């Protein structure tokens, strides 16, 4: 409540969190925080003019986001000693004081809110199922009293599922965004292979509607 009050004192309606890249899929699954995009979307998110602070840890960070941030008002905040960048604000994560560090991050973003210029957020929303806990995978196959992996096992034994494949990984600026992810996944699905995915590949699949029950 104190942070919401502080945000409103700066003219904001509230606080909005969103995720990019691998961790985005995890915080959506666990906390319901929406995903903005995957690896190659970092600079695009900044270009909306709506990002008051982008927080980066150790993985999948483009050095170019600092150059993009200078063109807009976005503050780049690093949280890992291994990922310090010249020109970024460093607020090191400490698990013993996690809430205090998080509040400093949010306050940095709130203080930067009045510096926003023109904002353009594409009017496009898609829906996805971000993931399942191992407990839920057993439950959804047999119910709370008879949870089991039998439906999956039977499908494999009967040949309806010919195998399982884990598909993960980031995009590469040298090839069209998401193309390799989607081609591999669709080929596997087309051959009755169950695909297990997370991170950037999962977000690529979500953009194509492959992470819905339908």
Q: What does the model show?
A:
- With 214 residues, the chain is α/β, with parallel strands linked by helices.
- The protein contains nine helices and seven strands.
- The protein has a three-stranded parallel beta sheet, with helices on both faces. It has a two-stranded parallel sheet with strand order 1-2. The protein has a two-stranded parallel ribbon with strand order 6-7.
- Strand 1, helix 2 and strand 2 form a beta-alpha-beta unit.
- The longest helix is centred in the middle third of the chain and has 15 residues.
Strand and helix order: HEHEHEHEEHHHEHEH
Number of DSSP-assigned strands? 7
Treating each run of at least 4 consecutive H or I residues as one helix, how many helices? 9
Kindly name the structural category: alpha/beta
Poorly predicted runs of 5 or more residues:
none
Strand content: 5-15%
Mean pLDDT: 91
Describe the main β-sheet briefly: 3 strands, parallel
Rounded to the nearest angstrom, the distance between the terminal CA atoms is 39 Å
């Amino acid at each position: 409540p104190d942070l919401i009050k502080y945000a409103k004192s700066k003219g904001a309606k509230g606080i909005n969190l969103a995720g990019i890249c691998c961790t985005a899929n995890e915080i959506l699954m666990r906390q319901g925080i929406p995903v903005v995009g995957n690896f190659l979307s970092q600079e695009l998110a900044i270009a909306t003019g709506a990002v008051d602070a982008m927080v980066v840890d150790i993985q999948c960070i483009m050095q170019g986001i600092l150059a993009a941030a200078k063109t807009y008002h976005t503050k780049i905040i690093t949280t890992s000693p291994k990922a310090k960048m010249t020109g970024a604000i460093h607020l090191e994560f400490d698990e013993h004081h996690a809430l205090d560090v998080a509040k400093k991050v949010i306050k940095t973003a709130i203080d930067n809110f009045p510096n926003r210029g023109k904002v353009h957020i594409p009017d496009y929303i898609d829906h996805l199922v971000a993931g399942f806990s191992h407990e839920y995978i057993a439950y959804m196959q047999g119910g709370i009293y008879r949870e089991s992996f039998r439906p999956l096992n039977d499908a494999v034994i009967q040949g309806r599922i010919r195998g399982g494949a884990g598909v993960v990984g980031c995009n590469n600026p040298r090839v069209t965004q998401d193309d390799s992810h989607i081609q591999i996944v669709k080929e596997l699905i087309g051959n009755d292979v169950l695909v297990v995915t997370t991170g950037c590949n999962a977000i690529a699949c979500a953009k194509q509607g492959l992470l819905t029950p339908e």
